[in-house]
Specification:
The chain is mainly α. It has one domain: Up-down Bundle (Amino acid/polyamine transporter I). 78% of the residues lie in helices and 0% in strands. 51% of the residues are buried.
Protein backbone atom coordinates (compact mmCIF):
# COMPACT_ATOMS: atom_id res chain seq x y z
CA UNK A 1 0.00 0.00 0.00
CA UNK A 2 2.93 2.33 0.65
CA UNK A 3 4.08 1.96 -2.93
CA UNK A 4 0.55 2.62 -4.15
CA UNK A 5 0.41 5.80 -2.06
CA UNK A 6 3.74 6.98 -3.48
CA UNK A 7 2.58 6.18 -7.01
CA UNK A 8 -0.73 8.01 -6.50
CA UNK A 9 1.30 10.94 -5.22
CA UNK A 10 3.28 11.02 -8.45
CA UNK A 11 0.07 11.45 -10.43
CA UNK A 12 -2.07 13.57 -8.12
CA UNK A 13 -0.81 17.05 -7.34
CA UNK A 14 -1.82 20.68 -6.95
CA UNK A 15 -2.80 20.79 -10.62
CA UNK A 16 -6.07 19.04 -9.81
CA UNK A 17 -7.03 22.03 -7.69
CA UNK A 18 -7.45 24.22 -10.77
CA UNK A 19 -7.34 22.03 -13.90
CA UNK A 20 -11.09 21.24 -13.82
CA UNK A 21 -11.79 24.96 -14.17
CA UNK A 22 -9.24 25.41 -16.97
CA UNK A 23 -10.63 22.41 -18.83
CA UNK A 24 -14.19 23.68 -18.40
CA UNK A 25 -13.13 27.04 -19.83
CA UNK A 26 -11.73 25.27 -22.88
CA UNK A 27 -14.54 22.83 -23.63
CA UNK A 28 -17.44 23.47 -21.25
CA UNK A 29 -19.15 20.34 -19.88
CA UNK A 30 -17.66 18.36 -22.78
CA UNK A 31 -14.36 18.53 -20.87
CA UNK A 32 -15.57 15.41 -19.07
CA UNK A 33 -14.83 13.56 -22.34
CA UNK A 34 -11.24 14.78 -22.19
CA UNK A 35 -10.95 13.47 -18.62
CA UNK A 36 -12.34 10.10 -19.69
CA UNK A 37 -10.08 9.87 -22.75
CA UNK A 38 -6.94 10.65 -20.75
CA UNK A 39 -7.91 8.13 -18.09
CA UNK A 40 -8.26 5.50 -20.81
CA UNK A 41 -4.89 6.55 -22.24
CA UNK A 42 -3.34 6.27 -18.78
CA UNK A 43 -3.74 2.49 -18.82
CA UNK A 44 -1.31 1.71 -21.68
CA UNK A 45 1.04 4.51 -20.57
CA UNK A 46 1.20 3.23 -16.99
CA UNK A 47 1.65 -0.38 -18.10
CA UNK A 48 4.42 0.54 -20.54
CA UNK A 49 6.44 2.50 -17.97
CA UNK A 50 5.96 -0.17 -15.33
CA UNK A 51 7.37 -2.78 -17.71
CA UNK A 52 10.28 -0.51 -18.64
CA UNK A 53 11.08 0.02 -14.96
CA UNK A 54 11.24 -3.71 -14.39
CA UNK A 55 13.83 -4.22 -17.14
CA UNK A 56 15.88 -1.02 -17.25
CA UNK A 57 17.05 1.82 -15.03
CA UNK A 58 17.52 5.57 -15.38
CA UNK A 59 14.00 6.89 -15.78
CA UNK A 60 12.68 8.29 -19.05
CA UNK A 61 15.98 9.91 -20.00
CA UNK A 62 17.77 6.65 -19.33
CA UNK A 63 15.27 4.64 -21.39
CA UNK A 64 15.70 6.93 -24.40
CA UNK A 65 19.48 6.78 -24.01
CA UNK A 66 19.43 2.97 -24.01
CA UNK A 67 17.05 2.80 -26.96
CA UNK A 68 18.35 5.55 -29.23
CA UNK A 69 21.68 6.76 -27.86
CA UNK A 70 22.94 9.64 -25.75
CA UNK A 71 22.23 12.44 -28.30
CA UNK A 72 18.55 11.45 -28.49
CA UNK A 73 18.25 11.57 -24.70
CA UNK A 74 19.40 15.19 -24.46
CA UNK A 75 16.14 16.73 -25.83
CA UNK A 76 14.15 14.74 -23.24
CA UNK A 77 16.30 16.09 -20.42
CA UNK A 78 15.98 19.64 -21.77
CA UNK A 79 12.20 19.38 -22.13
CA UNK A 80 11.88 18.42 -18.50
CA UNK A 81 14.58 20.68 -17.03
CA UNK A 82 14.15 23.83 -19.13
CA UNK A 83 10.37 23.78 -19.61
CA UNK A 84 8.47 21.17 -17.63
CA UNK A 85 9.91 21.99 -14.21
CA UNK A 86 10.02 25.83 -14.39
CA UNK A 87 6.56 26.22 -15.92
CA UNK A 88 5.14 23.42 -13.79
CA UNK A 89 6.40 24.67 -10.43
CA UNK A 90 5.44 28.28 -11.16
CA UNK A 91 1.99 27.19 -12.30
CA UNK A 92 1.62 24.97 -9.24
CA UNK A 93 2.72 27.79 -6.94
CA UNK A 94 0.17 30.18 -8.44
CA UNK A 95 -2.53 27.53 -8.03
CA UNK A 96 -1.62 27.20 -4.37
CA UNK A 97 -1.63 30.99 -4.05
CA UNK A 98 -5.21 31.16 -5.33
CA UNK A 99 -6.46 28.63 -2.82
CA UNK A 100 -4.54 30.05 0.10
CA UNK A 101 -5.81 33.56 -0.62
CA UNK A 102 -9.33 32.19 -0.90
CA UNK A 103 -8.99 30.23 2.32
CA UNK A 104 -7.61 33.23 4.20
CA UNK A 105 -10.31 35.50 2.83
CA UNK A 106 -7.86 37.89 1.20
CA UNK A 107 -4.30 38.49 0.05
CA UNK A 108 -2.52 38.65 -3.29
CA UNK A 109 -2.60 35.15 -4.86
CA UNK A 110 0.42 35.88 -7.05
CA UNK A 111 2.52 37.13 -4.15
CA UNK A 112 1.56 34.11 -2.05
CA UNK A 113 2.49 31.81 -4.92
CA UNK A 114 5.89 33.46 -5.37
CA UNK A 115 6.55 33.12 -1.63
CA UNK A 116 5.69 29.41 -1.82
CA UNK A 117 8.08 28.94 -4.72
CA UNK A 118 10.85 30.84 -2.94
CA UNK A 119 10.33 28.74 0.19
CA UNK A 120 10.68 25.55 -1.86
CA UNK A 121 14.01 26.76 -3.27
CA UNK A 122 15.25 27.64 0.23
CA UNK A 123 14.25 24.18 1.44
CA UNK A 124 16.13 22.52 -1.43
CA UNK A 125 19.26 24.57 -0.85
CA UNK A 126 19.07 23.59 2.83
CA UNK A 127 18.76 19.96 1.84
CA UNK A 128 15.23 19.58 3.16
CA UNK A 129 13.31 16.84 1.38
CA UNK A 130 9.76 15.62 1.80
CA UNK A 131 10.15 12.19 3.41
CA UNK A 132 8.37 9.13 2.09
CA UNK A 133 6.14 9.09 5.15
CA UNK A 134 5.22 12.74 4.76
CA UNK A 135 4.57 12.19 1.05
CA UNK A 136 2.19 9.35 1.85
CA UNK A 137 0.41 11.59 4.38
CA UNK A 138 0.05 14.40 1.84
CA UNK A 139 -1.26 12.00 -0.77
CA UNK A 140 -3.80 10.65 1.70
CA UNK A 141 -4.89 14.18 2.53
CA UNK A 142 -5.38 15.12 -1.12
CA UNK A 143 -7.22 11.90 -1.91
CA UNK A 144 -9.49 12.36 1.11
CA UNK A 145 -10.26 15.96 0.14
CA UNK A 146 -11.09 14.96 -3.41
CA UNK A 147 -13.26 12.07 -2.24
CA UNK A 148 -15.20 14.26 0.19
CA UNK A 149 -15.61 17.01 -2.39
CA UNK A 150 -16.86 14.56 -5.00
CA UNK A 151 -19.23 12.79 -2.60
CA UNK A 152 -20.73 16.09 -1.46
CA UNK A 153 -20.90 17.50 -4.97
CA UNK A 154 -22.61 14.58 -6.72
CA UNK A 155 -26.09 15.22 -5.19
CA UNK A 156 -25.98 18.79 -6.54
CA UNK A 157 -25.15 17.80 -10.12
CA UNK A 158 -28.05 18.53 -12.45
CA UNK A 159 -28.78 18.19 -16.13
CA UNK A 160 -28.53 21.95 -16.50
CA UNK A 161 -24.83 21.74 -15.60
CA UNK A 162 -24.24 19.92 -18.90
CA UNK A 163 -26.18 22.27 -21.17
CA UNK A 164 -24.96 23.27 -23.66
CA UNK A 165 -22.64 20.27 -23.65
CA UNK A 166 -20.02 21.45 -26.16
CA UNK A 167 -20.38 25.25 -26.43
CA UNK A 168 -17.00 25.64 -28.14
CA UNK A 169 -17.34 22.74 -30.57
CA UNK A 170 -16.08 19.17 -30.41
CA UNK A 171 -12.47 20.04 -31.22
CA UNK A 172 -12.36 21.91 -27.91
CA UNK A 173 -12.26 18.51 -26.19
CA UNK A 174 -8.78 18.03 -27.65
CA UNK A 175 -7.71 21.47 -26.44
CA UNK A 176 -8.99 20.61 -22.96
CA UNK A 177 -7.00 17.37 -23.05
CA UNK A 178 -3.79 19.35 -23.59
CA UNK A 179 -4.10 21.32 -20.36
CA UNK A 180 -5.38 18.27 -18.48
CA UNK A 181 -2.33 16.23 -19.47
CA UNK A 182 -0.50 17.97 -16.62
CA UNK A 183 -2.67 15.96 -14.22
CA UNK A 184 -1.66 12.71 -15.90
CA UNK A 185 2.09 13.29 -16.28
CA UNK A 186 3.27 11.11 -13.40
CA UNK A 187 2.89 7.58 -14.74
CA UNK A 188 6.58 7.31 -15.55
CA UNK A 189 7.23 7.37 -11.80
CA UNK A 190 6.79 3.59 -11.73
CA UNK A 191 9.96 3.26 -13.75
CA UNK A 192 12.03 4.80 -10.95
CA UNK A 193 10.23 2.97 -8.14
CA UNK A 194 10.78 -0.47 -9.63
CA UNK A 195 14.36 -0.61 -8.34
CA UNK A 196 13.31 -0.17 -4.72
CA UNK A 197 9.96 -1.92 -4.45
CA UNK A 198 8.47 -5.22 -5.45
CA UNK A 199 5.23 -5.52 -7.35
CA UNK A 200 5.01 -2.30 -9.35
CA UNK A 201 2.31 -3.68 -11.62
CA UNK A 202 -0.05 -4.28 -8.69
CA UNK A 203 0.57 -0.73 -7.46
CA UNK A 204 -0.10 0.50 -11.00
CA UNK A 205 -3.48 -1.21 -11.10
CA UNK A 206 -4.45 0.18 -7.70
CA UNK A 207 -3.35 3.66 -8.68
CA UNK A 208 -5.36 3.51 -11.89
CA UNK A 209 -8.46 2.54 -9.90
CA UNK A 210 -8.02 5.36 -7.36
CA UNK A 211 -7.24 8.01 -9.95
CA UNK A 212 -10.12 6.95 -12.20
CA UNK A 213 -12.69 7.30 -9.42
CA UNK A 214 -11.34 10.62 -8.17
CA UNK A 215 -10.75 12.25 -11.56
CA UNK A 216 -14.04 11.22 -13.11
CA UNK A 217 -15.92 12.27 -9.99
CA UNK A 218 -14.17 15.64 -9.99
CA UNK A 219 -14.84 16.10 -13.71
CA UNK A 220 -18.57 15.43 -13.32
CA UNK A 221 -19.07 17.56 -10.21
CA UNK A 222 -17.23 20.56 -11.70
CA UNK A 223 -18.62 20.27 -15.24
CA UNK A 224 -20.59 23.50 -15.01
CA UNK A 225 -18.18 25.46 -12.85
CA UNK A 226 -16.91 28.94 -13.64
CA UNK A 227 -14.90 29.25 -10.42
CA UNK A 228 -11.12 29.60 -10.17
CA UNK A 229 -11.17 27.40 -7.05
CA UNK A 230 -13.63 24.60 -7.84
CA UNK A 231 -12.46 22.21 -5.12
CA UNK A 232 -12.80 24.92 -2.48
CA UNK A 233 -16.34 25.64 -3.67
CA UNK A 234 -17.26 21.97 -3.36
CA UNK A 235 -15.85 21.74 0.16
CA UNK A 236 -17.56 24.93 1.25
CA UNK A 237 -20.84 23.62 -0.13
CA UNK A 238 -20.41 20.59 2.11
CA UNK A 239 -19.08 22.20 5.30
CA UNK A 240 -19.84 25.88 4.95
CA UNK A 241 -17.36 28.73 5.53
CA UNK A 242 -15.51 26.60 8.11
CA UNK A 243 -13.96 24.69 5.20
CA UNK A 244 -11.90 27.70 4.11
CA UNK A 245 -9.08 27.39 6.68
CA UNK A 246 -8.81 23.67 5.94
CA UNK A 247 -8.57 24.45 2.25
CA UNK A 248 -5.79 27.00 2.86
CA UNK A 249 -3.73 24.58 4.98
CA UNK A 250 -4.23 21.71 2.54
CA UNK A 251 -3.28 23.87 -0.45
CA UNK A 252 -0.11 25.03 1.33
CA UNK A 253 1.03 21.51 2.19
CA UNK A 254 0.14 19.98 -1.16
CA UNK A 255 1.66 22.76 -3.24
CA UNK A 256 4.87 23.00 -1.23
CA UNK A 257 5.33 19.23 -1.22
CA UNK A 258 4.83 18.92 -4.97
CA UNK A 259 7.06 21.90 -5.84
CA UNK A 260 9.79 20.69 -3.49
CA UNK A 261 9.76 17.26 -5.13
CA UNK A 262 9.81 18.67 -8.67
CA UNK A 263 12.74 20.96 -7.86
CA UNK A 264 14.69 18.12 -6.26
CA UNK A 265 14.18 15.89 -9.30
CA UNK A 266 15.01 18.67 -11.73
CA UNK A 267 18.14 19.63 -9.79
CA UNK A 268 19.48 16.07 -10.01
CA UNK A 269 18.86 16.05 -13.75
CA UNK A 270 20.62 19.40 -14.16
CA UNK A 271 23.86 18.20 -12.61
CA UNK A 272 26.22 20.06 -10.28
CA UNK A 273 24.56 23.46 -10.59
CA UNK A 274 21.11 22.13 -11.43
CA UNK A 275 19.25 23.85 -8.59
CA UNK A 276 20.88 27.21 -9.29
CA UNK A 277 20.01 26.87 -12.94
CA UNK A 278 16.38 26.21 -12.02
CA UNK A 279 16.41 29.24 -9.73
CA UNK A 280 17.53 31.45 -12.61
CA UNK A 281 14.98 29.94 -14.99
CA UNK A 282 12.10 30.30 -12.50
CA UNK A 283 13.12 33.88 -11.63
CA UNK A 284 13.16 34.87 -15.31
CA UNK A 285 9.87 33.10 -15.98
CA UNK A 286 8.25 34.75 -12.96
CA UNK A 287 9.43 38.18 -14.09
CA UNK A 288 8.09 37.63 -17.62
CA UNK A 289 4.81 36.25 -16.28
CA UNK A 290 4.24 39.27 -14.05
CA UNK A 291 5.40 41.76 -16.64
CA UNK A 292 3.28 40.39 -19.49
CA UNK A 293 0.39 39.23 -17.28
CA UNK A 294 0.66 35.67 -18.56
CA UNK A 295 -2.41 33.65 -17.62
CA UNK A 296 -2.23 30.51 -15.52
CA UNK A 297 -3.83 28.59 -18.39
CA UNK A 298 -0.89 29.42 -20.65
CA UNK A 299 1.67 28.33 -18.05
CA UNK A 300 -0.09 25.01 -17.52
CA UNK A 301 -0.44 24.39 -21.25
CA UNK A 302 3.26 24.97 -21.90
CA UNK A 303 4.18 22.65 -19.03
CA UNK A 304 1.69 20.04 -20.24
CA UNK A 305 3.04 20.16 -23.79
CA UNK A 306 6.62 19.66 -22.60
CA UNK A 307 5.62 16.81 -20.28
CA UNK A 308 3.59 15.19 -23.09
CA UNK A 309 6.72 15.31 -25.24
CA UNK A 310 8.70 13.63 -22.44
CA UNK A 311 6.02 10.95 -22.16
CA UNK A 312 6.02 10.42 -25.93
CA UNK A 313 9.80 9.97 -25.92
CA UNK A 314 9.56 7.41 -23.14
CA UNK A 315 6.87 5.52 -25.03
CA UNK A 316 8.98 5.59 -28.19
CA UNK A 317 11.75 3.97 -26.17
CA UNK A 318 9.26 1.38 -24.91
CA UNK A 319 8.26 0.55 -28.48
CA UNK A 320 11.86 -0.30 -29.33
CA UNK A 321 12.98 -1.90 -26.08
CA UNK A 322 9.81 -3.87 -25.37
CA UNK A 323 8.53 -4.29 -28.93
CA UNK A 324 5.16 -3.48 -27.44
CA UNK A 325 1.98 -2.78 -29.37
CA UNK A 326 0.52 -1.32 -26.20
CA UNK A 327 3.29 1.27 -26.08
CA UNK A 328 2.85 1.97 -29.80
CA UNK A 329 -0.86 2.63 -29.29
CA UNK A 330 -0.14 4.91 -26.31
CA UNK A 331 2.50 6.74 -28.34
CA UNK A 332 0.00 7.41 -31.13
CA UNK A 333 -2.58 8.77 -28.68
CA UNK A 334 0.00 10.96 -26.95
CA UNK A 335 1.08 12.30 -30.34
CA UNK A 336 -2.56 13.22 -30.97
CA UNK A 337 -2.65 15.18 -27.71
CA UNK A 338 0.52 16.97 -28.79
CA UNK A 339 -1.11 17.83 -32.13
CA UNK A 340 -3.86 19.68 -30.26
CA UNK A 341 -1.20 21.83 -28.60
CA UNK A 342 -1.19 23.98 -31.72
CA UNK A 343 1.47 26.66 -31.77
CA UNK A 344 2.73 25.51 -28.36
CA UNK A 345 4.11 22.43 -30.10
CA UNK A 346 6.87 24.76 -31.27
CA UNK A 347 8.22 24.80 -27.71
CA UNK A 348 9.39 21.15 -27.57
CA UNK A 349 10.32 21.26 -31.27
CA UNK A 350 12.63 24.27 -30.86
CA UNK A 351 14.05 23.08 -27.53
CA UNK A 352 14.59 19.61 -28.94
CA UNK A 353 16.35 20.93 -32.04
CA UNK A 354 18.61 23.11 -29.88
CA UNK A 355 19.44 20.10 -27.71
CA UNK A 356 20.37 17.98 -30.74
CA UNK A 357 22.56 20.75 -32.16
CA UNK A 358 24.21 21.10 -28.76
CA UNK A 359 24.83 17.35 -28.61
CA UNK A 360 26.42 17.39 -32.07
CA UNK A 361 28.66 20.35 -31.19
CA UNK A 362 29.72 18.66 -27.95
CA UNK A 363 30.56 15.48 -29.86
CA UNK A 364 32.68 17.39 -32.38
CA UNK A 365 34.52 19.30 -29.65
CA UNK A 366 35.13 16.07 -27.78
CA UNK A 367 36.46 14.39 -30.93
CA UNK A 368 38.86 17.29 -31.60
CA UNK A 369 40.14 17.25 -28.02
CA UNK A 370 40.68 13.49 -28.21
CA UNK A 371 42.46 13.85 -31.57
CA UNK A 372 44.79 16.53 -30.20
CA UNK A 373 45.53 14.47 -27.13
CA UNK A 374 46.28 11.42 -29.25
CA UNK A 375 48.64 13.33 -31.56
CA UNK A 376 50.42 14.98 -28.63
CA UNK A 377 51.35 11.70 -26.93
CA UNK A 378 53.71 10.35 -29.65
CA UNK A 379 55.41 13.74 -29.88
CA UNK A 380 56.07 13.69 -26.19
CA UNK A 381 57.62 10.20 -26.37
CA UNK A 382 59.89 11.06 -29.31
CA UNK A 383 61.27 14.16 -27.60
CA UNK A 384 62.32 12.19 -24.58
Amino acid sequence: MRLTAMYVGAVLGPGVLVLPALAADAAGPASVLAWAALLALSVPIAVSFARLGERHRGGVVGFVRIAYGRPAARPVAWWFYLVGVPFGVLGGALVGGRYIAYGLGGGDPVLIGVVLLAAAFVANYAGVRVSAGAQVLLVGLLAALLAVAVACGVPHVSRADFEPFAPHGWLSVGHAAVVLFFAFSGWEAASTLADEFGDVRRATRRTLAVVTVLYLGLAVTTAGTTSDVPLADLLERAFGPSARPVTAVAATLLTFGAINTYLAGGARLGGRHGLTGLLVLCALLTAVTLRLHVELDALMRVASTALAAVTAAGLAAAVKLLRSRTAAFALGCTALVLAFSGVLLAVPVVIGAAALVSARISARVGARVSARGGSAAPAGRSSS
